[in-house]
Known about the structure:
With 307 residues, the protein is α/β, with parallel strands linked by helices. It contains nine helices and seven strands. The chain is globular, with a radius of gyration of 22 Å. It has a seven-stranded mixed sheet, sandwiched between helices. The protein has one domain (78-294): Vaccinia Virus protein VP39 (Rossmann fold, 3-Layer(aba) Sandwich). Helix 1 packs across helix 8 (234-244), helix 3 crosses helix 5 (124-132) and helix 6 packs across helix 7.
Amino acid sequence: xxxxxxxxxxxxxxxxxxxxxSKTFGRRTPALHPSLGGPDSTGAADLVLPQIGLDSRLTRIxxxxxxxNPFESAELERLPLFKLWLGIPExxxxxxxxxxxxxxxxxxxxxxxxxxxxxxxYGSSLSLWRGYFAHPDTVIVGIDIEPVCAQSENPxxxxxxxxxxxxxxxxxxxxxxxxxxxDIIIDDGSxxxxxxxxxxxxxxxxxxxxxxxxxxxxxxxxxxxxxxDSELSFIDVCKQLVDLIHVHYIQPGVEGIGSxxxxxxxxxxxxxxxxxxxxxxxxRFFDSIVAITKKAPGYVPSLMRKP
Length: 307
């Protein structure tokens, strides 16, 4: 369901947002296809707003040095997760990931959690998470297409491995039924852009708890042809999600802050929005990582003014 919705939104949202901006601010916008509910070109306003964006000083080219030995980085050595990783055999991690992991996961590490990691490889990440998420009742599940990865299973430590594909809906449903729903889902799987999108489409709604975190890493692969096997990258999808978490402000019937002002007569009682608009609390972007936090449906945001 979410998959079909995202495909439709990929086509509709940019045009719809452009239309609403043009109606609000008088900016010219291309004609929209009638199926998107937009006007023809004769309805565009004549006023053109000034073009403004990032200052060229901020986008100037600069030389960025490689660290001589990241294993001896003073900044990394201050992170407990990095120290833990150094003591685990095998495996590889990008240096910037330890900052992102710490920012996203540190507040969760002492709680009893259910964690799904897509991609097992040599099992080093499973060992890392088992050591980092310290509560003894935390359950960690890894999935991979390679049968040899089953050797990383350690049920006595609540570490489980299931063999199957991250794009196999039946397999994913089986894993969720056996171990889920999950507090944290980490996609470190094939890195194929279509696989990232497909897994998110299938797992976000039914596989992730409210207040759960869906983290996808190695997003730099979206920019490399070896891994880019879909028109949209996962980063493109995340940019759409940024629009979606604001879409209630441009829906029909919304007329500025009065539509959200608590207690005023013009406050709207409800607004028709997408499922994802109501279920995403935050989206955090890092270098090659995005972390999406889910929330319960809740209510339309209200503007509150103290008496």
